[in-house]
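Below is a filled-in request sheet from our internal design queue. Each sheet records the structural input a requester submitted and the sequence that came back. We keep these sheets so that new team members can see what a complete request looks like end to end.

REQUESTER: design group, bay 2
PRIORITY: normal
MODE: inverse folding
CHAIN LENGTH: 129
BACKBONE (tokenized):
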């Protein structure tokens, strides 16, 4: 069953898959990033990335905060479309506060996803409406 991206049901479904998540890339392991997803069906949603995992809420020790539109966040995190992120950033739709080098190191070290990461990405797509 597919759930609306970032809804309570979606988070519950993602959390149920947590044990299946592949090892994050080295650039993602130590990254702590607060993200505000704006303009979603339920309004703005605060999430963070920590150790390659997408979690609810912001954390106090994240050196960088990013504000990103809902459709761009969905394209990035569910579809794996990093080009959408770059286009949105260049168009001024993505706002960055704090240590931008963290974001740049994540982008530079991203590389191609492993087969395990691609398979997990597909599971996320299947549970996301």
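RETURNED SEQUENCE:
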């Amino acid at each position: 069953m597919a759930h609306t991206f970032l809804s309570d049901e979606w988070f519950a479904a993602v959390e149920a898959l947590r044990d299946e998540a592949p090892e994050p890339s080295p650039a993602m392991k130590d990254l702590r990033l607060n993200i505000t997803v704006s303009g979603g069906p339920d309004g703005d949603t605060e999430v963070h990335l920590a150790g390659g995992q997408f979690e609810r809420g912001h954390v106090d020790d994240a050196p960088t905060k990013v504000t990103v539109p809902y459709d761009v966040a969905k394209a990035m995190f569910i579809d794996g479309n990093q080009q959408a992120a770059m286009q949105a950033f260049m168009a001024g739709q993505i706002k960055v506060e704090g240590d931008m080098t963290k974001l740049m190191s994540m982008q530079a070290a991203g590389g191609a996803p492993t087969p395990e990461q691609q398979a997990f990405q597909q599971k996320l797509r299947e549970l996301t409406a």
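SHEET NOTES:
- The chain has one domain: 8-127.
- Strands lie at 32-40, 43-50, 53-56, 64-69, 95-98.
FILED BY: M.R.
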